[in-house]
Amino acid sequence: MDYTIVEEHNRIILKNMEDFEPKHIFECGQAFRWYVEEDGSYTAVHGGRVVNVKRQGQHIIFSNTNKEDFENIWFDYFDLGRDYSKIKQTLSKDPVLREAIKFGKGIRILNQEPFETTISFIISANNQIPRIKRSIDLISKGFGDYIGKFRDRVYYSFPPAHVLAQADEEDLKESYKVGFRAKYIVESSKMINEGRVDLNSLYELPTDKAQEVLMTLPGVGPKVSNCILLFSFKKVDAFPVDVWVKRVMEYFYFKKDTKVDIISKFAYEKFGPLSGFAQQYLFYYARELGIGKKK
DNA sequence: GTCCAGGCTTTCC
DNA sequence: GGAAAGCCTGGA
User: Fold this and answer.
1) Chain C nucleotides reached by a protein CB under 7 Å
2) Residue closest to C5, CA→C1'?
3) Which helix H or strand E contains A267, and what residues bound it?
4) pTM to 2 decimal places
5) A232-276 pLDDT tens trace
6) Which tens digits make up the pLDDT trace of A124-139?
7) Which amino acid residue lies closest to nucleotide B13, measuring CA to C1'?
8) Which residue is nearest to nucleotide B7 (CA to C1')?
9) CATH top-level class for A114-232?
10) Which residue intervals of chain A bear CATH 1.10.1670.10?
11) Which CATH number fits the domain A84-111+237-295, given the four candidates 3.90.550.10, 1.10.1670.10, 1.20.1260.10, 2.30.30.140?
């Protein structure tokens, strides 16, 4: 973790940044709104700003930003205060993780906006990534604010709870392609907007208590709540078990069909406070290799 | 209280 | 035609 931060006109450069690979970060399934440019860089909106991220040799370049936004927004969003080399070293004691980390060595866990993450993962249930992305884009364009243009593409913020609480269920279903999840989106937005669920209070709660609160939202079960905890509340001991993680865990550790509860317990005993990182390396590994997938 | 089958929208392979 | 970053409901 020995990178240095350099400021240039309209961009910030992290020199000699090792534990940061845009492809790994944006394609390990934690975020759905990063757009891949032709040059392999990625562009998205967060915190009311459009930013573009690219690796160039040993350096990471953040374009369309400045030092103030980097310090106030991007440093926390990209989890830049955390030493991933140390985490990888610890997890590599496990031979399976050692291999998984080789594939996703540049993964970092983003600290995303809680409401956007909640709705995004409600949409993810029994869904496919291309369609999840499309729904989130449509919702941002239809309900969010115009933020700016970058390389001829326009970017919109994700709408706040009070806006989606007013959305029409049928409209969400038909025009935003969210299917049966429409009623979950509207009702969860209402609960959050009315303060029946206070997302901001979850930062202060231990992981299991925060999960209990999240699971009172309709459309939020064990898997979705763990994703929200890990990807927006810094609960890095959360271990979301989806079909890919289930497969990769069964393939390497259990050698047979195993219930999600058993897998979760096993993971927490094995990886403890680093479970969330282990999950991301395993997920990326399983998906890139298609481990356990039927042909 | 736990466990499990069936249903859910629509797209992608 | 089966599967998809699952969840909810009702019944045993």
Assistant:
1) 3-8
2) A242
3) helix A260-271
4) 0.97
5) 999 999 999 999 999 999 999 998 888 899 999 999 999 999 999
6) 999 999 999 999 999 9
7) A295
8) A180
9) mainly alpha
10) 84-111+237-295
11) 1.10.1670.10
Encoded tokens for A59: 């350096």
A288 burial level (CB within 10 Å; 0-12, 13-18, 19+)? middle
Question: In this predicted model, what pLDDT tens digit does every residue of A130-172 receive, in sequence order?
Answer: 999 999 999 999 999 999 999 999 999 999 999 999 999 999 9
Q: Distance, angstroms, CA A126 to C1' C6?
A: 5
CATH fold label, A4-81:
TATA-Binding Protein (3.30.310)
- In whole angstroms, B10 C1' to A15 CA is 45
The per-residue pLDDT of chain A, averaged, comes to 95
Beta partners for residue A60, in sequence order: A14, A55
Q: Which residue is nearest to nucleotide B11 (CA to C1')?
A: A131
Helical spans, DSSP H, in A92-242? 95-103, 114-123, 129-143, 161-164, 169-175, 182-193, 207-214, 222-232
Q: Which nucleotides of B are covered by protein (CB under 7 A)?
A: 3-4, 8-13
**From CA A104, how far away is CA A287, in angstroms rounded?**
11
pLDDT, tens digit, for every residue of A279-288? 999 999 998 8
Amino acid at A195: G
Distance A29 CA to B3 C1' (A): 30
Distance CA A289, CA A295 (A): 12
Nucleotide nearest to A240 (CA to C1'): C5
Domain with CATH 3.30.310.260 in chain A: 4-81
